[in-house]
Specification:
It is built from 11 helices and 16 strands. The protein is α+β, with helices and mostly antiparallel strands. This is Protein N-acetyltransferase, RimJ/RimL family.
């Protein structure tokens, strides 16, 4: 590519200039940008900005990549940066990256810049662009979706932290003949961020829910229904909460905090695992803390979840599995309109090698099944 100015609606992409140094420091010293761009020096100083403008960015251009300031179209002041690196000419491939200053976020700037840079890159002859994003960075994944990038898989240990540790990166890819976005999502966001019947509320699981979720999933009776039946570590739960939005965006699962609608307190959890996209089928699971049991809250949550799964998600079938001894869970499914289909023998792994593999009762609900008549549930 050549360092031409690229127009992008409310912003434009242009090469860096010496007087950009102050704005570059203000943006690159932001904790979020430092967290998700470990190649940036920390702390980021005026000397670092001047080096990038005079040496780093020109080197990117000489290497066949690109290094742009994203500037406000009216003021011409930088509000972010975008570029191409890791160029492989023989494959027509490059890695695209961007950052946005804190005061300019949530205005569609990263999406506009990414679309414009991708268009310019494809016109210059590239055939494939990659965005490599940490799973804990859902904001960047939303930009990828909006700019027409497809989730392709996980690059194991592809990221290198400042401390030398390695971590996985999600690969989002756009080809030259892909539409510019937005990409349709298998699992849309919740209306107004929640589902509620005024007694229970379901919202997306968040990092702040880790303490309650760990308490829930280390309960012996909950552990007994896990696959495998061993308690998770706190690190496991922290990770689950941290990547819940990413899993939702990529269409893998919708992980919910189940809350008391009046107090907002998290009293349990439920999840939809999109295990068979090709057949329009997903699995659900749910559990409650002891203090919330016996009030019909799980039934209410499953009804809410099923309604969302059929419309607007558009699933053709929901299924659930229960242990044969778990009659409480079976009552929940029956009241939520699920039908018992059969027994899956020795379906799950055993707690230890000397224990027989446990059976699972299979339950299902279809969108054409009659809506269950609401029982006078407690609560």
């Amino acid at each position: 590519m050549t360092p031409d100015v690229v127009e992008a609606g409310p912003v434009r992409l242009r090469p860096y200039r010496p007087d950009d140094a102050g704005d570059l420091v203000a943006g690159c010293a932001d904790p979020v940008n430092l967290r998700f761009n470990p190649v940036l020096p920390q702390p980021y100083t005026l000397a670092d900005a001047r080096w990038w403008i005079t040496e780093g960015a020109p080197a990117a251009w000489r290497g066949g990549g690109a290094a742009y300031a994203i500037v406000d179209a009216d003021t011409d002041r930088p509000v972010g940066g975008a570029g191409l690196s890791q160029v492989v000419p023989g494959r027509g491939q490059a890695e695209l990256g961007y950052w946005v200053a804190p005061q300019a976020r949530r205005r569609g700037i990263a999406t506009a810049a990414t679309r414009a840079l991708a268009t310019a890159a494809f016109r210059a002859g590239l055939a494939r662009l990659e965005l490599l994003i940490q799973a804990e960075n859902p904001a960047s994944q939303r930009v990828a979706l909006a700019a027409g990038f497809h989730p392709e898989g996980v690059r194991r240990s592809a990221g290198l932290g400042r401390d030398g540790s390695r971590y996985d990166l999600l690969a989002w890819v756009r080809l030259a003949d892909d539409p510019p976005g937005p990409l349709p999502r298998p699992l849309p966001d919740l209306p107004d961020g929640r589902l509620t019947d005024t007694v229970v509320t379901l919202r997306r699981l968040a990092p702040a829910d880790a303490e309650a979720l760990h308490r829930l999933h280390t309960r012996p009776e909950v552990v007994a229904t896990r696959v495998r039946p061993v308690p998770p570590t706190r690190a496991d739960i922290d990770r689950r909460c941290a990547v819940a939005e990413s899993d939702w965006l990529t269409g893998r699962s919708a992980d919910f905090a189940l809350c008391d609608a009046v107090t907002g307190t998290m009293v349990g959890g439920c999840a939809l695992i999109y295990d068979e996209p090709a057949t329009g089928q997903a699995m659900i699971g749910y559990s409650l803390l002891p203090e919330a049991r016996g009030r019909g809250l799980a039934t209410r949550a499953v009804r809410l979840l099923a309604g969302w799964a059929f419309d607007p998600v558009g699933l053709a079938r929901l299924w659930a599995g229960t242990a044969p001894w778990n009659t409480a869970s079976q009552r929940v499914l029956t009241r939520a309109g699920f039908h018992r289909e059969g027994l899956m023998r020795a379906r799950l792994p055993a707690p230890d090698p000397d224990t027989p593999r446990p059976d699972t009762l299979l339950w299902s609900r279809l969108p054409t099944d009659p809506t269950p008549t609401p029982h006078p549930l407690p609560g």
